[in-house]
Amino acid sequence: MHLKRQFLALHCFIALSSWSAVGVAQNYPNRATKIIVPFVAGGPTDVQARWAALQLNTALGQPFIVENRLGGGGVPGVEAVVKSPADGYTLLAGNPGPLTVAPAVKTNMPYQTSKDLAPIMLIARTASCISIHPSIPASNVKEFIAYVKANPEKVSYGSPGVGTVGHLSIESFASQAGIKINHIPYKGASQYQNDLIAGHIQLAQIQLSNCIPLLKQGKIKTIGITADKRNALAPDVPTIAEQGMPGYQSYNWNGLLAPAGTPSAIITRLHAILTKQLATKENQQLFISQGFEPSNLTPEEFASFIILETEKWAKIAKQADIKE
pTM of this prediction? Predict the structure, then answer.
């Protein structure tokens, strides 16, 4: 009888927990939800956060308000979310910079991405072009490597700053190519793109949506894209991987996360809404036309993806001896 009472008590607890979780999801949200974007307005992370906010607002009938918190490479914005109540009313629009790259190069991080955040939805990812100034006599990876080896003092590359995707990605490329390239950190992508066009630097990694118009205008050349396969917007541009660097790839991505401990019923509901909207023909075409690959990862798969990304950048940072 004692065991029977324990068994019945356990079933009652599970049933009550299940009803509680369902109740949380059904009653959520009953007020405004804040989505913190740890970057300036107008960038890819901000744009996709506003897309997500619109979908959730429409589906749930409550405001989802985007709030931009700038500075510190996105780390302070992420920290603000991590320290917020895990009730679903503060969400994070995240990208690899503060979530998977910063932990690889910074010694005193105020959070651990995989422990302090609950992934909801990887919205989309995008590759970049490894672009060069038109004066460089190279049109592919092999020719560029040969040029750098013959003229090591003539080649510098720009990035959005030390410890960013643009920095570590080029360092990984240089390492695989067996070359050294001088790094010049900037405060933003627009600055180093302008300097590449002007010829003040010779190399930069430029996000696909920005690269293609410049490429068509003849303002830059590209030796390849950082994707695992060619992109429909630039089908004639080969990947870096297919040019003798198997396995090489680098993506920027954007996703939605919540503080760790947020009820799984809320995570599941938000994910279901965004997945349904992202799968529509209209939204698929919208993202693809901008050079993005829409995602269909589950929250669990997104969590695994973040762990793999963190391990990758940590390995590259160690090899290149990059620390802040």
Answer: 0.85
